[in-house]
């Protein structure tokens, strides 16, 4: 047990043990739930309680009284132990934690959130996980996802490939939400997988001291046990805990700063819905079945790729800067069907002359790039700019990093960008898949 | 009349005149509609026909036969004339054309679209407009909107202010869709208006030789005659021609590359719906009534503003470059609640030290920036970065250009950015206004 001093005394005073159902009474509010153990480095003076909703909250014990509602069973995972129980009848799921809110601890004193949980803490904080699988858990990083870098994608892909080689029946990656879709795209390009690879996280709104990691994690494990051998993002499908969606790793994007259902398939439908622990795959989606692919790992990437948003005041100097600085490729977030001010086109010509692929995407996010409609688009095509088709700008950026890792030949990179490597673009118009 | 040679001979041959209802028969398709006059500089060999849907199409006459269905009335506008009729009982609407698809002509030979119509051509191509108002039409620019620059916003605002001073009861701006929302935001900050200022355009999908300008223009005129004295965008509300929406000029964004209903209110509801030529204002929206404001024009802007999207491989050199190059302000499109890699924060500190305001927005687009939740956000706040609240990144960029035009003092710019100048941010959480 990691409770110390004040909290420990308080527990002894009221006869509370970890795993017990307890009630903590404040002046005008009371909390009832299962008393959990807490991370090693958390502040003293708080108890962590799992509410019946599955949310874990921290309750400051100052000026409270407590009561024991029901003595708990001995916790399955053995709080305070590092070993996770093993059951030969269950599948083996590897959980790789990279940090992020899903594996963070809130500092209940300041309200700020720090990445702090270890991967095994994830299981301890969500003991229902033990009903579904055996776990091999490891903490690869402990960072918030805004600090993910392309080199970390490589290490994560290698770790996942190792786990699959070692016999994992599925892999769950706990990840911060900010850049989860960049990482899911990177893993999609880097790995051909015989088993599901599911990326999940938690979206926590600032006004509630709770984590929505519970259902996302459990449903990710359900997905990781399924027949869907693809890289997917598993996150809330609505504002409540009713169901989650699996989104294709290359077709998904974080669309809201704080909602739990922030992740959305762009120019595509979700691959599957998970409700009541059951995966329902979209019947229109032709998925890759477990075991259909051999494991392949290809992590060669080029990190010197620029990512530029076009806007009315943009200067061609900004494109020139990237060329001068030795960037190997550029992704442009253009306007509309894939446009930039005509002023910039000379600089795209220079990029072409210097063997630097430039890929055009749209800041509209939805719909397809089509540079054949307007005179500007045709001028842009004339200087060798390559269409991002209906890929998100973020997936296009990740794909260009990967494509430039495969080849430094302009024509070959163009060929890769126009080949559907990991379902990253739709073959047909996606006009119906709008704001869904 | 501007038909010449082949087309003129063809019309004489079949006894067709402008304004007549005609039918053109091809081998396997026929078109019935009103024969329109055509722009001066268009190619020979095509007739322009207005279908009953309101769409104008170009029909190549080669290998066709034609028949006269019904002789037309003398066209109201006098085709071939430059004078537009005036009716003292109607309101006076100023139409300012800046170019874009709404005022473009398709080259029916190549399928490409060029900005070519003059503003009076707009009325000629949409004669129903004459039922609703008198028009003062002028072509301010003739460009596609990707070539709009901040200095053009200034000229447009000045022109609009002149028209209002000269007695216009409302102003309609015809504009390309790519950057329409940047311009609508700019006009919102630059103008306090006693009359409606309505920006409209057309979204043309590459696969159909038709323009959806008709209903957008007519509904814009209806809006310009209304009681809503604000800067609004008027565009299709659905895939068909059933209704249009009025969106607040600071809260709107192009969200699809090709759909007609591409413009969407972000973190807000549309202000009004226009159906069957009737404006229904959202009852929850507290609008500014006609005449409530005196006309005020404030076009001071700073054009040297950078607009940077954050991504996993971004280098702090991006920020340093903008500081070195003398940029006066930066807008960051961060991830999630408003984050960037911690590597960049030192450069934000340098920006602060050099009196360069940095404004944080989110590439999620939906939801509010909140840098108080995570440690990264707090670090970013500590170096003076200013929240973009729930403004779109594009509106934030435009607002910072304008704010830096009002003051070069950091504290004053911060004060302006946090003041709701033109309804650009919501006072409350907008969690419900998601993907609508």
TrEMBL record, chains A, B:
Keywords carried by this UniProt record: ATP-binding, Hydrolase, Ligase, Nucleotide-binding, Protein biosynthesis
SUPFAM superfamilies named in the record: GatD N-terminal domain-like, Glutaminase/Asparaginase
Reaction(s) catalysed (UniProt annotation): L-glutamyl-tRNA(Gln) + L-glutamine + ATP + H2O = L-glutaminyl-tRNA(Gln) + L-glutamate + ADP + phosphate + H(+)
Asparaginase/glutaminase C-terminal domain location: 304-417
Family matches, as Pfam families: Asparaginase (PF00710), Asparaginase_C (PF17763), GatD_N (PF18195)
GO term, biological process aspect, one: amino acid metabolic process
SMART domains, A to Z: Asparaginase
Alphabetical list of Gene3D superfamilies matching this protein: 2.30.30.520, 3.40.50.40, L-asparaginase, N-terminal domain
Residue intervals of the GatD N-terminal domain: 18-69
EC number(s) recorded for this UniProt protein: 6.3.5.-
Active site: 101, 177-178, 254
Residue intervals of the L-asparaginase N-terminal domain: 92-284
Keyword set includes Flavoprotein: no
Any one GO molecular function term: asparaginase activity
Role of this protein: Allows the formation of correctly charged Gln-tRNA(Gln) through the transamidation of misacylated Glu-tRNA(Gln) in organisms which lack glutaminyl-tRNA synthetase. The reaction takes place in the presence of glutamine and ATP through an activated gamma-phospho-Glu-tRNA(Gln). The GatDE system is specific for glutamate and does not act on aspartate.
Family statement: Belongs to the asparaginase 1 family. GatD subfamily.
PANTHER family the UniProt entry points to: 60 KDA LYSOPHOSPHOLIPASE, L-ASPARAGINASE
Subunit record text: Heterodimer of GatD and GatE.
Name of protein: Glutamyl-tRNA(Gln) amidotransferase subunit D
Provenance organism: Methanobrevibacter thaueri
